[in-house]
């Protein structure tokens, strides 16, 4: 059956819908392709037959080669066995022939082992002694540590008791200080009220004298001083209420430093001295201008009112300063002149016309001022006219008037003012520098821990000491007023303000708690500064100020010792911790050394 017949049979049985086209092939060279396919198939059959023959030949060759290798293996095995037999016989011969050399080698090896054994025994004994010594040192260190801990506990108990006593003393001091503050404010209120009452009495006396002596000026001055009196009475009521508020707050536990300051208002000066001077001048000048009238008897004021000057009433007299927070402003008021004339001398001059007398009156004070300035320039040539005028004005401001002063008194007061200006420039009342605490010796810079302080682990302090952050954490939690455990505490004593230096006008001193002002190193020797209305007015108060100063110093010392004890306790605790830590490190090192010794012993035993 040919290929064409097979194709026709396949085409005849085709069942798809294109059966009518199956008899026609569109490929023109399909017959050549089929013939090439059959040729390639026959070629492959021939190659396959050749490869099968070659494989058979190679298998035969491989079998022959395998048989040859098996024979060679058997020959080599026989040769190796023969060599082993020869070697065994040679070894036996050598052992028999070299017994002396072998014995010598054995003896040398034995000697080496004996030497090694003796050296190992020596090491074992040495390590045992070192272990015993380490145990003894460890026991001594443990006993020493226990003894130090007992001593530290006793010291800690003593410090705690001391701190408790110091705390109780500090509480007592604070209670006394609060009572003193209440007493201080009460005395301030009493002094302020007494000053106002004295001023009201002076105003009443001034108006009564003015009504009798100078009725032409009484109406105008009465309106003015009635306004001033009403304003002062309002200020008095306000001051009373403010002092009551401060007292209530102090009784509630507030500190005086935290309360608002109370400024006592300046009282207008009552020109009683000018009034007396005008009365005197009028009594001397009246016989030259008018005939002697009918004498009218007038009751004179008491002698003490004519000679005693009240410092709080003058323009620049200092107000009592009991506390630096309660200061009074410097009043800037001028003294009104009541009379339109001022005679140049007390001798009765010839009777001039009324116009001439009124025209010559303004030039008379200028001529007197020139004479005073000439005398002052001769006494103090280093000052010019303007400086002397300013000093004279300061003297007048501090006293209220220059009437009744002799030339020697004026020169002395100007010299005193000049010395004060050389020491410090005059100015308004400022807050005085508080009395510092008792200076205790500052300990040298040290560290709470024995380890080195790195910059990143250092706690910043305002002093030069260096402390770890972790070491000072407990101190910062327990301490409220001091940030450094090594620096002595600097508490601000509440009663330190009771004795503060002041500098008002030409006076320098201390205001005591009883209303009296005492002399200070800057003031004139032997001078007495009185506080009107105070229970100790006019007394020097040297013993009183010493007692109060000693009391304040003792309180400051107590607080400083309390803070120093707290700092010492903290340092002692840190040192105890460091010593315990170092002992633990030494103990760990000893344990490691003992364990290493035991390991060496075990190794020596294994070697032996």
Automatic annotation (TrEMBL):
Low complexity bias locations: 336-345, 354-364
Protein name: RING finger protein 214
Gene Ontology terms, MF aspect: ubiquitin-protein transferase activity; zinc ion binding
Biased composition (Pro residues): 289-302, 429-446
Statement: the UniProt record of this protein carries the keyword Transmembrane: no
Bias type Basic and acidic residues, positions: 71-80
Transmembrane portions of the chain: none
Source organism superkingdom: Eukaryota
Domain RING-type: 461-487
Region (Disordered): 1-31, 50-80, 114-144, 289-364, 421-454, 513-534
Keywords: Metal-binding, Zinc, Zinc-finger
Organism listed in the record: Scomber scombrus
